[in-house]
Amino acid sequence: MSTRTVIRGGLVITASDEVHADVLIEDGRVAALAVPGAQEWSADRVVDATGKYVIPGGVDAHTHMELPFGGTFASDTFETGTRAAAWGGTTTIVDFAVQSVGHSLREGLDAWHAKAEGNCAIDYGFHMIVSDVNQDTLKEMDLLVEEGVTSFKQFMAYPGVFYSDDGQILRAMQRSAENGGLIMMHAENGIAIDVLVEQALARGETDPRYHGEVRKALLEAEATHRAIRLAQVAGAPLYVVHVSAMEAVAELARARDEGLNVFGETCPQYLFLSTDNLAEPDFEGAKYVCSTPLRPREHQAQLWKGLRTNDLQVVSTDHCPFCFVGQKELGRGDFSKIPNGMPGVENRMDLLHQAVVDGHLSRRRWIEIACATPARMFGMYPKKGTIAPGSDADIVIYDPGAEQVISAETHHMNVDYSAYEGKRTTGRVETVLSRGEVVINEREYTGRAGHGTYTPRSTCQYLN
Prior knowledge:
By secondary structure, the chain is α/β, with parallel strands linked by helices. 31% of the residues lie in helices and 23% in strands.
């Protein structure tokens, strides 16, 4: 049965345009845009967007639902996490399937399909964490690219868990240079960091703030530089995840000035939070333990600048929530045992709109770094990330003047604290459509687990 929805009277904002337009949706896709009132389209549903923004649904290309870490699991399931994403105006996530050492990529991918299938409120795709590079794994990478898993994450951190050495990284990069895949890198010198952790604990430095002190900005910059040069040797593109340090931004900027296919992502926590949070008393700082860690406040200006100059192209959340009670508390007396990760999938679009209000970003740049570029980077554009004829009708009606206070009492993520507790923001998601179906209707959840479908992806659309 054909269904038609018209969104009337809003300001349609994409990465390239701002235009007052009516939007016609047919059978889950955008069918047409027209000057307001110019077309008398008949419709089953009319949404009045007068005075509101009409924006593409957010694409969060870095989430970890149900991730096993440090003897526990991220507290959001695919059901709770994607519902929270929808509340925050995000309509597509790309999560990370995990290969365990000694197991195949296929086993890891199948396990993540099983977790997600039938449970997601919004559409989803997968990256593949490669923890065990060998001849079989390298062959599997080719097969995964063919079936729409076109990006592979490696870790220069976490020895004994996810860590790859330079030789393994080089082999994977050489393979991705051939098969069109994109290597995503967690760039921190984990071998050196482990030495500093051991030394800090021996000195009795056990509080959460030392997590930030041992994971030094210079060791993020060193690993970023090394990853860039390994990718250059392999002739492969590189995407550096969760960039937090100004020294790492400088490495990315230098590589891009050299014309290399090197890309960088940062996250809201690095733009809005700092080591001041890690130093909060009574173990409260544990709430802010993530890796790469929060940095001193002076790094923020360079991250904002990187987003404006396009040395950083994407803002994702690295959403990996652990409850304070019973999970973060595992690290009382030893910061190295605090599960690494923070909640944020629900807050990203609002925090970035606040950055527009504060003058850090333009409205179009907001949509570019949160919707269009992640969709292009990971092979989903223009199906996702824009509002254009033929695109999926993943659309958010956004009230730019509404004010809200971020709080764990009102958020929908399955975690017992908010990293942004008490923060006042201007702008709020009002209505969300996922493939034409209303999942948030004027601040009421009308979606369902199982509406979200798996989205195979083509290769990175930025490679020259």
